[in-house]
Specification:
alpha/beta, five-stranded parallel beta sheet, 8 helices, 15% strand
Length: 254
């Protein structure tokens, strides 16, 4: 025990000072992808064809749909002009599906209205529902509770019962077998309530979009209040989105 205490003492404070200070991410981190269509003579059509989820849109202004992107880098490898790259920007959450693929750039999540902030701003309880995920997004949600991110210091906690929750967090594409369970879980959450879609699968169906076994993203079944892209999203991306929704971080342009 004495040895463990010494190690912990040497480690010092492990909890990130985010959001008062920006977190320093490793060079391997894949943040928000950006595209410079002016560098592609064919309008990035070659890059678009390489995307397994159709996340690169070339109808009008060439852009990336973050709700479909699985951060695989196939487009980066396919682009001979180097027009696509991943940044270190972890901020990607938006309030509407359209904002994730807007022509004029990503619009970061706005806060709930004043009434909802009064209800949930200091104490938010969430029930997680895996609607068919691969466990990657679930693992990142679990990481939010560790000493590094310490989600509970913001008054946000995950609970075991939807009857004790203020909203749901959905991960994975909504499978045919889970649709009814998801709907019943939502019905059990007292109103007013919120729903958060975490990860590409929960937003658009991801790699499973169009398969007969899945219904698609969560918004094909229930109304979504916050979309958090990624495959899986980094805990900081999730935390940033939650704090923006609660009005803890001021609105910014992405």
């Amino acid at each position: 025990m004495t040895g463990l205490l010494k190690i912990r003492w040497r480690q010092g404070q492990r909890t990130l000072p985010f959001p008062s200070e920006q977190a320093i991410l490793t060079g391997r981190f894949r943040g928000r992808p950006i595209i410079d269509a002016s560098r592609c003579p064919d309008g990035c059509r070659q890059c678009a064809e390489s995307c397994p989820t159709g996340a690169i849109l070339v109808d009008g202004a060439t852009r990336i749909d973050l709700g479909r992107c699985v951060f695989c880098e196939d487009c980066v490898r396919a682009c001979p002009e180097g027009a696509i790259r991943y940044t270190q920007d972890h901020r990607m959450a938006s309030r509407t599906r359209e904002d994730l693929a807007a022509d004029d750039g990503l619009k970061l999540a706005e806060a709930l209205d004043a009434r909802m902030r009064r209800l949930f701003g200091r104490s938010l309880r969430l029930r997680h529902v895996s609607a068919g995920d691969c466990s990657a997004c679930s693992a990142e949600l679990t990481a939010l509770g560790n000493v590094v991110f310490d989600l509970s210091r913001f008054g946000v906690q995950f609970v075991a019962s939807p009857r004790h929750a203020d909203g749901l967090v959905v991960t994975g594409p909504v499978s045919a077998n889970m649709q009814l369970a998801l709907e019943k879980t939502w019905e059990a959450v007292p109103s007013p309530r919120i729903l958060i879609a975490v990860g590409a699968c929960a937003i658009s169906g991801g790699l499973f979009a169009g398969l007969p076994q899945v219904r698609g993203g969560a918004d094909q079944v229930l109304p979504v209040d916050l979309y958090i892209p990624g495959c899986p999203p980094h805990p900081l991306t999730i935390l940033d989105g939650l704090l923006r929704l609660l009005g803890r971080i001021e609105e910014e342009k992405g």
